[in-house]
Amino acid sequence: MVRLTNFIFFASVVSGALSSTVYARTVHSVPIYKKVSGNATSSKALMARDLARFNVDVAAAVGEAPETNDDNKYVAAIQVGTQTFELIVDTGSSNTWVGAGTKYTPGSTATFTLELFKVTYGSGSVFGLEYTDNVQIGGLSITKQGIGSAITSPGITGVDGIIGFGPVDLTAGTVTGLTTVPTVMDNLLSQGTISTEVLGVSFAPENGGDTNDANGELTLGGTDPTKYSGTITYVSKTTASPYNKYWGIAVSNITYNGTSISTSANAVVDTGTTLIYLPTAAYNSFLTASGGTTDSTTGLSSWTTLPTADLALSIGGVSFSLTPSQFTVPAAHSSTAVDFIIGQKFLENYYSVFDTTNSRVGFAPRA
Ligand SMILES: *[C@@H]1O[C@H](CO)[C@@H](O)[C@H](O)[C@H]1NC(C)=O
Ligand SMILES: *[C@@H]1O[C@H](CO)[C@@H](O)[C@H](O)[C@H]1NC(C)=O
Ligand SMILES: *[C@@H]1O[C@H](CO)[C@@H](O)[C@H](O)[C@H]1NC(C)=O
Asked: Which biological process annotations from GO are given for this protein (predicted)?
């Protein structure tokens, strides 16, 4: 089990024209770690699971890393009532629920709302009873957080549930009798615990066979300057449907070896997706440019000589590149709604910021 900690840093600001104020700003950090279950039996199974989240069919994919058979999840230890649960950190969904592994035992702080909840993730689903209870995360307390208690959760194994960091609109229709369910971040803001609804995410790739280290961090109510270098580049949430329901952004250019393979595409930034999925045309151009073919058995592309050039995404006017050892890029060969997903393979290389208050997403190089 990981330990929840706070840290404090100091910032000096000039307040108005006449005075200068130094104030302490508290940023709340939550250690997260990557769980590798190896339960996905093939890279195709992994891709199918990734894409089923967005109801996308997978036909082919590209990537050089056979280790992608691993079923990767980033999880955090969150306290609900008096129990601690290991929950998937998910910016692609917004309900918070427990009970897939350790069962929820409602205590004195719990209230049964008399409502039912159901969320379908494509790759799995959950159904149960909706409670409100106290939640402790990163040393912060939330009262009356909507919490689902799973009765059944087919397809979701190895964890206790999910903490949803997606936009609140994704909770529409998930709980009987409620229009939407305020998210953990919404409640931290509305209860005055954080002053700006900002989530910072630092994912770190595992080294070798080393797993389950506390190798990542969530920052609640701000960003953690020790986790990134340089400045954060922000881009507004897209208004293009259906990307606007998620943390969707415009990617103005995709390049391979400095040559454009796609312009003006929308993408979902999703901590719950393992790989990076490109739009079909970009994927095909990528294959052509890198001299690869799709291996029909693995669903990944293969090369006689591994590619040596970088793949880069232009976001908010800045190019964020991945070296061949950093990218594994399958593509959804279908004309379905969501065909561009920026998953863990990208997020492990860049610090990411999910800013509800300003309706934007940010990226910066990892520290
Ligand atoms: C792996 O899959 C099996 C069979 O579906 C399941 O019983 C087990 O709990 C899974 N393990 C993990 C760590 O997800
Ligand atoms: C995309 O990137 C290429 C290569 O850097 C550049 O020549 C092109 O102008 C860019 N296009 C857009 C729309 O930014
Ligand atoms: C990258 O582009 C340059 C210039 O067009 C070319 O000479 C080089 O071979 C390319 N490298 C790769 C790995 O495709």
From this structure: proteolysis
